[in-house]
Specification:
The chain is an alpha/beta fold. The chain is built from twelve helices and eleven strands. It has a six-stranded mixed sheet with strand order 1-2-3-4-5-6, with helices on both faces. It has a five-stranded parallel sheet with strand order 8-7-9-10-11, with helices on both faces. Strand 1 and strand 2 form a beta hairpin. Helix 2 packs across helix 12.
C-alpha cells in the first residue's frame, strides 16, 4: 500500500467509535504512515500540555521520520476521557493527576486501574516516587516529568501580579494563604480561559510576578506541575509554596519558595520594585535551563528511545 493510502487508513482505523469521543476536545491524534499517537484527556490545563506535546510529536515525525511503532495510546489526567482510551498496540498512562481535587491522592492509581477500560502497558511517571509506586504495582515505567514547548521570553513591559492556575482547584486554606492578599486588587489577574500556548505565553510575559501552587497530591508524590515549567520558560518570576522535590525535578535550585503569607508579601513586593531589565537578566537564565532540559521535544525523543 502506498504511503498516502497507509496514512489515510491509519487515521480511519483510529477514529473512536464512541459517540462521547470528540477530536480536539477529549482526544488528539498525531500520525505518520506506520506510527500514530492518540492522547486522551480533558480540561484547560491538560489541553495546554497535550497541545505542546502534540507539536513536539509532529516535529519529531518531520525531522526524524517515522519510527514505525504502531498505534500508541496515551491516557492523561483524571477526567472521564482518561478512563475510556482506545486499545492500541501500546497503551500508556501519563500519570500527572491524583484525583480531580486531591480528595484521596494516595488511592488514585488503584482507583484508576479499577475503572479504566484498557489497562496500561507502561506508566509515564512525573517523579521518582510515582515511578517506585507504579513499579511496585507491577508496571514497566518511564521517568517522564511534564515540560514545555511553546513558552519563551518576549521582552514585553511587565506589570501586575498573576496567578498561574485556576481559582477553586486547590484547597481553600492554601488559596487563601497564597491569593488572599491580592484577590480583588486591580493589579491582580488569574489565568482561566486561554486555550492555546501562545496566548498563555503572552499573558505570562506581561506579568511582573506570578504566584503558583501545587495540589497536595502533586506535592506529596514529588511532582512538579506544568505551570512551573511554562512560567519559567517564559522568563517570568513565579513564587511557589515550598515544594521539597522541586530542585530534584528541575535539575537546579529555585529560591523563590515561601512558607508563610508574610514571606509571600515580602517577596512579591521585592519583585514589584525590580526593573524589567533586572528580572530579564535573572529569569532568562531559568528560561534557558528549562527549555534545554524540559522541552517536550526532548521528552518525545526519550519516549521513542525507551519503547523502540
Amino acid at each position: 500500500m502506498s504511503f498516502p493510502k497507509r496514512f489515510a487508513q491509519r487515521i480511519l482505523n483510529l477514529i473512536p467509535s464512541r459517540s462521547n469521543q470528540v477530536a480536539g476536545e477529549n482526544y488528539w491524534q498525531y500520525a505518520a504512515a506506520d506510527t500514530s499517537i492518540t492522547i486522551h484527556g480533558g480540561g484547560l490545563g491538560d489541553l495546554m500540555i497535550i497541545r505542546q506535546f502534540g507539536r513536539a510529536i509532529q516535529d519529531f515525525f518531520r525531522d526524524q521520520g517515522d519510527p514505525e511503532q504502531g498505534d500508541i495510546v496515551i491516557s492523561t489526567g483524571a477526567t472521564p476521557p482518561a478512563y475510556e482510551p482506545l486499545q492500541g498496540d501500546l497503551n500508556l498512562l501519563w500519570w500527572w493527576s491524583f484525583g480531580e481535587f486531591d480528595g484521596s491522592p494516595e488511592q488514585f492509581l488503584d482507583d484508576y486501574l479499577e475503572r479504566v477500560s484498557v489497562r496500561p502497558d507502561i506508566i509515564l511517571c512525573p517523579s521518582s516516587k510515582t515511578e517506585k509506586e507504579a513499579q511496585q504495582a507491577g508496571f514497566e515505567t518511564i521517568y517522564f516529568p511534564l515540560g514545555t514547548y511553546a513558552f519563551e521570553p518576549l521582552g514585553f513591559d511587565r506589570s501586575g501580579i498573576g496567578y498561574a492556575g485556576t481559582i477553586g482547584h486547590k484547597r481553600s486554606g492554601k488559596e487563601e494563604m497564597m491569593l488572599g492578599l491580592y484577590r480583588g486588587s486591580s493589579k491582580f489577574e488569574a489565568v482561566s480561559h486561554f486555550r492555546f500556548p501562545e496566548e498563555l505565553n503572552c499573558w505570562y510575559n506581561v506579568k511582573k510576578v506570578t504566584i503558583g501552587m501545587h495540589k497536595e497530591g502533586q506535592k506529596s508524590w514529588g511532582m512538579v506541575n506544568n505551570r512551573v515549567f511554562e512560567t519559567l520558560a517564559s522568563g517570568t518570576p513565579i513564587i511557589l509554596k515550598e515544594h521539597n522535590n522541586l530542585s530534584n525535578v528541575l535539575g537546579f535550585e529555585y529560591p523563590y519558595q515561601i512558607t508563610s503569607q508574610d514571606e509571600l508579601r515580602e517577596m512579591v513586593q521585592r519583585f514589584r520594585q525590580r526593573s524589567d531589565q533586572s528580572i530579564q537578566s535573572e529569569f532568562n537564565d531559568y528560561s534557558q535551563k528549562v527549555m534545554e532540559e524540559h522541552s517536550y521535544r526532548r521528552r518525545v525523543n526519550h519516549l521513542f528511545r525507551e519503547i523502540s
